[in-house]
């Protein structure tokens, strides 16, 4: 449904997109993960036909994102990363305008306002960031489109609204929608995405099933020894540092867990604690690998 093929858009060295390819199929939530300036928003703007690629090809629903941008916009619900709406309009006026523009059902709007409630009669310029984000979410999803492009969708939302958003995303996925979601909020991506791509300086580092990404990460362990001397000796053995009777380390290809266990048979070990796998560890793992000489 969503396809980028070798798309390049260069603004400056290491700024833009460079030979980026990925696909999002119906019924899939695809996470686009990276820090600010990595190229996430550029990719989404390319898909929306807001900028033209230097090379490569992008389509949504078979429509060319640049040459058939009106057809693309007709089938896409778009949530930009920065919400810019007329300050003197009220939320009610904005939603009425969107409803007429997209021919959306009033029932859909009411249902979404129950999920993401805010004072619709407030003027945009008086709204908090969270209120603007809820207004944008309602406006985006009331279109009931087959494709959604969401740029930092939970920015400004409180934890309750974030959970409601994730529940909505799951419902939309089950209805066969194709969803591309950019974020650097790792827990929500891990909960909601089927696949993910990590991007740095406009280039994809890796793309994989979200659970495979987590499983492939390096894991951190902390071992508590009965004797400080044992902790010091073990730390020297694996090239790590100790803090009193504890030694922390990260498994690698050169230092596997099996090797560590063999070493530990020589010592008085009190506890072994492993950090929970999460997407943030994966992100840091691949970024640190990229930066290694």
From TrEMBL:
Keywords assigned by UniProt, alphabetized: ATP-binding, Nucleotide-binding, Transport
ATP-binding recorded as keyword: yes
Protein name as catalogued: ABC transporter ATP-binding protein
- Family listed: Belongs to the ABC transporter superfamily.
Q: Which domain of life is it from?
A: Bacteria
- Where is each ABC transporter domain found? 2-226
Record-linked CDD domains: ABC_DR_subfamily_A (cd03230)
SMART domains documented for this protein: AAA
**Entry-linked PANTHER family:** ABC TRANSPORTER ATP-BINDING PROTEIN (PTHR42711), ABC TRANSPORTER ATP-BINDING PROTEIN NATA (PTHR42711:SF5)
Q: Which molecular function terms from Gene Ontology are attached?
A: ATP binding
UniProt source species: Exiguobacterium antarcticum
